[in-house]
């Protein structure tokens, strides 16, 4: 009885539990639902079999998989699907409605295709109003027969292959193709994306990209508009590269420079750059990548382009293979070692990093690469990125497929797997090698746009986290309910069809079909922009997207809470611009070309030329490679210049300049002329001292003769501490613009000088100086010597650091300093910042300076480059502005998850090493790779015999013993955002970070213009370790504090985003921005 | 119950006590155990990816330790400590019950293990060997004392090794590629940095300085097709393009590349073989076996070969980073044929002189002094790496073939081979003239 009761209860509970969980499931469905093959009838599976003759060692793209294209082939309003197969036949599925499909490959006639199919796309090639199908294939390789195929839609659910007839039956290694009307003659031309197979690992000079090769990329011009149903090869005359260097894995068509003409982006695997072809509007393209883009993915795979931030300009997303999981990351091939990177630079290849890249389109200024800021840089071995509004909330999200059946980038496999075995035949050996390649099946990634171009990883939350090896993907509204289904072609697994349940979110949408003239009936290449409630939603109709895949011809706009569209603008592929009026949402519109209101838009948007302000160009020269001396160094100190000082040296009431050059470049005095131009004053002493690298300079009357003298700080990080060429120098001015070297003015200060901060410490009327030093050459993390220099009134300085600050004050790695009376007591404090330290304040107490920790500055430690002390909010209290590393970096810091530096002689060979640890998820792991560490500390091999072992590190104690770590100097960074510490009446500070646009690069210099209350910010730094990467997301910008907020101030002319600004100074009305290894620009606030 | 057990124990002890002492003196006679230990060290050197100069250093100290036990326990051998640079004459107190060959083996394992990374791999091998020896009846007390003594000698050698500047040199600057015409630059497919740019600062055993035997510099760099340099490069190009099977076999046999990177698209894997030094240490083992050498003579051969190899590498590397010469692959790709690939993968350091030529010649010279000029041997060193055997009638014949193999392999110009052979011979001769393993007449010393 009792027993029965019990089991009854258990049954009941279980039942309830089941019921409950079922119910919960029902009441809380995820945004996406994976439909079963039974439900859909789609059973396509791209099965691969690795054989002796065909495998990853025989064909480098063996595991690249197939694509999927969406298109309504019979114009019944239901979008049909085509999946390409590598070893299995490709399949065409007819949409029967209700998300049910029928395999019509056989009856449609495409089952006879054969061959190894890769990319697929739909487009109406012959202008008959029916979508034709183009399939890229591999041919003539290891027994694979095939060629690119053009299947012409017969209008009755059958297709006929007419590739040869149309002249598009390319034979080679076809990856994908894209249709575009590049010459705006009304018909669709064809870009063929192809890949090589020959020794991608051998670097050849990049000029080889100019040498055409029959298997290279092609541009084929459609002659329909000229009356012929065929294409002719226009590759050469159009300026498209068609060389053996191209390993094309992605092609996107967009109007990147906003001139109304279609441009092309090509992502290339391996060493070759990606290509950004800008349409010259005359039938030719100009490859312009390096002018517009600072860095790209290295193993660029698929790509996609779309406007992510609603400014009407398309962003570019490329995928790569960086793992997110620290354990996989630490045992996978990462960035090129610095020596390899240098070789590629030597061959003139662009900067490329192993991570997804997100290029934010900033109009005329170029692109900012913001993947690290956006949080979308790592999604493992990735193929197809798609930029689309997944939840119809009006913000464009990102979906990325990933997975490789055999992971070739596993370092243990690379370094340690091959044991010699004389008994094995070569084919047995190869087979074993393939078997030994590790396999890891991971879910795909979904990134939800949370505004401000930041993204959250939501694959699990949205029900998209099924483990798979996924390749091509597409989105399309399969059930015509106004949201977009997701379809993915998998290897060795049935294709995924995810139904989108955004209809349950209450978000609004608009579906748009285009209908156009004879040849391009679906308006492929048209740009559609919706205007609603002050928002802009812009899409371009492309039927080639992501990786080897294509989307349908119906555009779906997610609109969030917007219920009404104010107007719709269409830029037709042929160049006509039409406005269509208001529209309701949650409906489907068909916009017919010629029925809208024609408008003209004047877009003369050529990239402007920049006119340097002064006839002087900084020429950086670095003869040593710092990483050879210090392999673990996180950043270079060799490119800190130029130095620039401003002052009226000849007493004519006009401000003059000192411009300090790099190693081997003389400093120059430029006197301002009444007309605002500058005249150089020759001075042989500057030539004689040219060997020193000038990194900062200051004009001040140091010898009390009433004329400005010059202090020049040396740096460059090439010489050892104490070296003659690191000595700072003082020159006395005679009031005419002439300067004389005063060698006895300074004690021998042989440091990398980072700042000269003048004040009168002992109140004797003569200017004293605090001289900050950034680092010890050859020993990053060690304490350089910063000095307090006391002036005897005659311009001779004596070091009195100890007298005023006490013994061995650890100033740390100082990057900038200011004297300012923070607390308003009439006595100036020394405020300094640097690397691994926050804002530090030294207050004068009788005749000594003491460090004081001010409330609100405790958690300011970062990699601070620059500082200003100003009352920005006009409350009578001085505020502190810090230019920090920013947020566009692999290193992320917070109080809870700091970045930590351990500095110690870990291997006890008398040379210390800097080891940086950072958090990845919950794990505190070394930033450098095992390989890098071994180069500096070979004993690591003994402690961690494999990469697998090394990858298990979750905290510093897993790398080195507690005893060893305890001996290390430990420094932390907890705040990398640049911003303002606003002083409150109680003397404490409150941090207000700069807007996100100012966090896209490190802020290296700042200028506050008191008259206009405008803050000028100079950024970018390309001297980080290769695995951190150059950080050139924002060159110069300006902000104004208004009503408790920073507001952007537009400057003109628009400087390239890639310029590395080191100094900003004001000369009368002009703002001068001096860049490293480049000219001095003049900018001003834009009148508009 | 308890008493019974006690009695059994007593009985057992009694039986054990009554056993006759085993004669274990013949448990180790020849150098087989030592050779097997060396094979293991070779495998670990390969696994851990030590470069050729570093590998030679490891072999030399480990072998020296094994030899010093022989010298300490047999008056017919002279200690090398005190003769080698930076070493001090050391009188080891040999405990009573030490079994010298075991102590020598223990010294080898102990020293070798300290110099490699994957200690577990060596320890497992050592434990297996020791277990086998124990089973052959070496009493525990003798065994322990011998191992202890071996360690003691090994520690002395390790203390000596610590002062050779190797440890400090791990933090010396990496080689900076200058991009000056004619200078070395990293080569495909791995584009590795220049290996050991400061190897000249490592202490030598015998030669006065790394630069004692300075070779003739390579001819002046030129890209002019009529220049001597171009002709040299063209010679390599032609040699590879026209290589016959025998030449290819020779090139492959002496490849001795400890780190050959294979790249197929995104797939990469390192295939590893013994280093040139490893190959010659193996020949020393084969020669010892062929000559029926006892364990002492084997240890002597190992030690002297190791010393010769080490000094050869220091001398060679000194020149490599003086002339910093461009590799044939780089030159040919730039000026003759962009797609040309050598037979062997170009190793990651400058061209002049050929390390294999210097090291092989020095080792061969030393082995000739030890085993005689006409010494036929079957070189099976590479069998484990899938290559056939080759036979030679003298060490110098083998070393000459090793030298020319680099030309057939497309990784060296001819002068690097000729000058390398000269340099190696000089190193060998000096070593043989300066140090000795034979006790000198006391009177002579005075």
UniProtKB/TrEMBL annotation, chain B:
Instruction: Give every Phosphatidic acid phosphatase type 2/haloperoxidase domain span.
Output: 321-431
UniProt cross-references to CDD domains, sorted A to Z? PAP2_haloperoxidase
The organism of origin for this protein: Algoriphagus kandeliae
PANTHER family, sorted:
PEROXIDASE-RELATED, PHOSPHATIDIC ACID PHOSPHATASE TYPE 2_HALOPEROXIDASE DOMAIN-CONTAINING PROTEIN
InterPro entries for this protein? PAP2/HPO (IPR000326), PAP2/HPO_sf (IPR036938), V-haloperoxidase (IPR052559)
Q: Name one Pfam family in it.
A: PAP2
- Source domain of life is Bacteria
Q: Which SUPFAM superfamilies match?
A: Acid phosphatase/Vanadium-dependent haloperoxidase (SSF48317)
Record protein name field: Phosphatase PAP2 family protein
């Amino acid at each position: 009885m009792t027993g029965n009761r019990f089991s009854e209860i258990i049954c009941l509970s279980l039942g309830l539990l089941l019921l409950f969980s079922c119910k919960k499931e029902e009441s809380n469905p995820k945004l996406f639902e994976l439909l079963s093959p039974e439900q859909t009838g789609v059973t396509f599976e791209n099965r691969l079999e690795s054989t002796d003759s065909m495998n990853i060692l025989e064909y480098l793209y063996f595991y690249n998989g197939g694509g999927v294209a969406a298109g309504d082939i019979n114009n019944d309003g239901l979008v049909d699907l085509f999946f390409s197969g590598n070893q299995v036949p490709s399949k065409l599925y007819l949409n029967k409605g209700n998300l049910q499909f029928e395999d019509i490959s056989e009856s449609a006639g495409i089952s006879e295709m054969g061959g190894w199919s890769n990319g697929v796309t739909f487009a109406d090639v012959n202008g008959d109003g029916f979508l034709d199908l183009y399939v890229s294939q591999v041919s003539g390789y290891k027994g694979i027969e095939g060629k690119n195929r053009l299947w012409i839609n017969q209008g009755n659910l059958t297709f006929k292959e007419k590739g040869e007839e149309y002249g598009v039956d390319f034979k080679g290694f076809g990856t994908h193709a894209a249709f575009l009307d590049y010459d705006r003659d009304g018909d669709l031309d064809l870009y063929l994306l192809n890949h090589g197979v020959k020794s991608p690992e051998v670097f050849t000079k990049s000029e080889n990209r100019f040498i055409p090769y029959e298997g290279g990329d092609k541009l084929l011009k459609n002659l329909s508009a000229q009356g012929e149903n065929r294409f002719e090869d226009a590759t050469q005359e159009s300026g498209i590269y068609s060389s053996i260097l191209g390993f094309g894995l992605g092609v996107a068509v967009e109007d990147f420079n906003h001139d109304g003409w279609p441009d092309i982006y090509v992502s290339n695997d391996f060493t070759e750059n990606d290509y950004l072809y800008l349409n010259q509007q005359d039938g030719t393209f100009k490859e312009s990548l390096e002018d517009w883009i600072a860095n790209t993915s290295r193993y660029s795979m698929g790509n996609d382009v779309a406007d992510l931030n609603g400014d009407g300009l398309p962003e570019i997303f490329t995928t790569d293979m960086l793992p997110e999981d620290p354990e996989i990351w630490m045992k996978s091939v990462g960035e090129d070692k610095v020596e390899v990177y240098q070789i590629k630079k030597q061959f003139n290849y662009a900067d490329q990093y192993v991570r997804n890249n997100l290029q934010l389109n900033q109009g005329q200024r170029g692109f900012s690469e913001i993947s690290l800021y956006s949080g979308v840089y790592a999604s493992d071995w990735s193929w197809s990125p798609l930029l689309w509004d997944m939840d119809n909330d009006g913000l464009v999200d990102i979906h990325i497929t990933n997975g490789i059946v055999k992971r070739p980038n596993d370092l243990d496999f690379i370094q340690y797997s091959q044991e010699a075995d004389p008994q094995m035949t070569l084919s047995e050996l190869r087979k074993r090698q393939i078997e030994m390649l590790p396999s890891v099946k991971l879910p795909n990634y979904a990134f939800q746009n949370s505004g401000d171009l930041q993204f959250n990883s939501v694959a699990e939350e949205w029900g998209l986290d099924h483990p798979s090896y996924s390749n091509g993907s597409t989105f399309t509204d399969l059930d015509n309910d106004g949201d977009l289904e997701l379809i993915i072609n998998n290897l060795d697994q049935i294709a995924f069809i995810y139904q989108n349940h955004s209809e349950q979110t209450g978000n609004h949408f608009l579906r748009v079909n285009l209908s156009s003239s004879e040849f391009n009936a679906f308006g492929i290449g048209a740009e559609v922009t919706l205007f609603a409630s002050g928002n802009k939603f812009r899409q371009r109709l492309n039927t080639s997207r992501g990786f080897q895949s294509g989307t349908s011809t119906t555009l779906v706009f997610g609109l969030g809470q917007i219920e009404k569209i104010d107007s719709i603008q269409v830029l037709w592929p042929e160049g006509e611009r039409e406005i269509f009026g208001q529209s309701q949402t949650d409906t489907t519109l068909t916009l017919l070309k010629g029925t809208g209101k024609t408008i003209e838009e004047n877009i003369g948007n050529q990239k402007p030329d920049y006119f340097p302000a002064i006839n002087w160009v900084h020429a950086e020269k670095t003869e040593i490679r710092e990483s050879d001396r210090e392999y673990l160094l996180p950043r270079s100190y060799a490119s800190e210049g130029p130095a620039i000082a401003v002052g009226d040296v000849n007493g004519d009431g006009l401000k003059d300049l000192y411009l300090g050059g790099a190693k081997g470049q003389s400093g120059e005095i430029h006197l301002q002329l009444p007309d605002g131009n500058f005249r150089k004053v020759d001075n042989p002493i500057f030539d004689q001292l040219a060997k020193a690298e000038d990194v900062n300079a200051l004009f001040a009357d140091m010898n009390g003769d009433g004329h400005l003298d010059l202090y020049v700080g040396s740096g460059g990080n090439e010489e050892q501490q104490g070296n003659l060429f690191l000595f700072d120098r003082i020159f006395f001015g005679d009031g005419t613009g002439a300067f004389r070297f005063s060698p006895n003015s300074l004690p021998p200060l042989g440091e990398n000088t980072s700042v000269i901060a003048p004040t009168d410490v002992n109140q004797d009327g003569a200017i004293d100086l605090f001289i900050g030093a950034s680092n010890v050459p050859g020993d990053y993390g060690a304490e350089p010597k910063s000095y307090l220099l006391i002036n005897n009134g005659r311009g001779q300085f004596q070091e009195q650091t100890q007298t005023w600050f006490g013994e061995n004050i650890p100033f740390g790695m100082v990057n900038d300093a200011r004297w300012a009376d923070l607390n308003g007591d009439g006595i100036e404090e020394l405020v300094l910042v640097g690397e691994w330290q926050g804002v530090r304040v030294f207050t004068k107490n009788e005749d000594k300076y003491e460090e004081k920790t001010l409330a609100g500055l405790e958690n300011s430690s970062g990699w601070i480059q620059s500082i200003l002390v100003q009352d920005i909010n006009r409350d009578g209290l001085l505020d502190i502005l810090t230019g920090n590393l920013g947020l566009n970096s692999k290193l992320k810091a917070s109080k809870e998850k700091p970045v930590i530096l351990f500095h110690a002689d870990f291997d006890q060979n008398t040379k210390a090493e800097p080891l940086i640890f950072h958090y990845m998820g919950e794990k505190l792991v070394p930033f450098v790779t095992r390989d890098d560490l071994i180069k500096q500390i070979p004993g690591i091999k003994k402690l961690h015999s494999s990469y697998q072992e090394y990858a298990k590190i979750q905290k510093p104690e897993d790398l080195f013993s507690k005893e060893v770590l305890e001996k290390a100097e430990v420094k932390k960074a907890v705040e990398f955002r640049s911003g303002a510490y606003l002083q409150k009446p109680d003397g404490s500070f409150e941090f207000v970070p700069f807007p996100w646009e100012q966090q896209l690069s490190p802020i290296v210099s700042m200028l506050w213009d008191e008259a206009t209350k405008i803050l000028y910010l100079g950024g970018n730094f390309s001297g980080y370790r290769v695995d951190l990467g150059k950080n050139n997301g924002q060159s110069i910008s300006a902000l104004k504090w208004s009503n408790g907020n920073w507001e952007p101030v537009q400057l003109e002319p628009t400087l390239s985003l890639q310029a590395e600004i080191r100094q900003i100074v004001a000369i009368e009305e002009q703002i001068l921005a001096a860049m490293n290894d480049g000219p001095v620009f003049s900018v001003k606030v834009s009148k508009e | 119950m308890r008493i019974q057990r006690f009695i059994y124990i007593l009985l057992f002890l009694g039986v054990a006590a009554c056993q006759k002492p085993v004669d274990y003196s013949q448990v180790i006679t020849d150098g087989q155990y030592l050779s097997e230990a060396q094979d293991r060290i070779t495998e670990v050197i390969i696994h851990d990816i030590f470069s050729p100069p570093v590998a030679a250093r490891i072999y030399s100290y480990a072998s020296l330790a094994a030899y010093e036990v022989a010298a300490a326990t047999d008056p017919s051998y002279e200690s090398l400590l005190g003769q080698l640079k930076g070493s001090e004459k050391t009188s080891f107190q040999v405990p009573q019950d030490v079994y010298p060959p075991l102590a020598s083996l223990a010294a080898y394992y102990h020293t070798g293990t300290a110099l490699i990374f994957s200690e577990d791999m060596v320890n497992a091998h050592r434990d297996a060997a020791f277990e086998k020896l124990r089973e052959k009846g070496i009493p525990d007390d003798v065994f322990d004392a011998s191992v202890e003594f071996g360690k003691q000698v090994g520690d002395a050698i390790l203390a000596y090794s610590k002062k050779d500047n190797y440890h400090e040199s791990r933090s010396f600057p990496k080689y900076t590629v200058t991009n000056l015409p004619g200078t070395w630059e990293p080569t495909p497919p791995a584009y590795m940095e220049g290996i050991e740019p400061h190897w000249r600062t490592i202490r030598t055993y015998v030669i006065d300085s790394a630069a004692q035997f300075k070779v003739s510099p390579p001819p002046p760099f030129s890209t002019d097709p009529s220049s001597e340099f171009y002709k040299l490069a063209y010679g390599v190009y032609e040699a590879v393009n026209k290589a016959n099977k025998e030449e290819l076999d020779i090139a492959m046999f002496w490849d001795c590349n400890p780190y050959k990177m294979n790249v197929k698209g995104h797939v990469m894997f390192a295939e590893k073989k013994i280093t040139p030094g490893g190959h010659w240490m193996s020949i020393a083992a084969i020669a010892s076996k062929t000559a029926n050498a006892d364990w002492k003579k084997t240890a002597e051969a190992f030690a002297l070969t190791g010393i010769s190899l080490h000094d050869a590498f220091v001398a060679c590397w000194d020149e490599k980073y003086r002339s910093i010469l461009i590799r044939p692959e780089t030159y040919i790709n730039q000026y003759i044929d962009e797609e040309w690939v050598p037979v062997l993968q170009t190793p990651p350091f400058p061209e002049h002189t050929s390390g294999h030529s210097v090291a092989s010649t020095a080792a061969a010279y030393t082995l000739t002094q030890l085993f005689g000029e006409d010494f036929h041997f079957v070189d099976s060193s590479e069998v484990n790496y899938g290559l056939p055997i080759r036979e030679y009638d003298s060490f110098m014949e083998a070393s000459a073939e090793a030298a020319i193999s680099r030309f057939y392999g497309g990784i060296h110009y001819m002068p690097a081979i000729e000058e390398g052979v000269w340099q190696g011979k000089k190193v060998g001769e000096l070593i043989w003239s300066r140090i000795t393993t034979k006790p000198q007449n006391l009177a002579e010393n005075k």
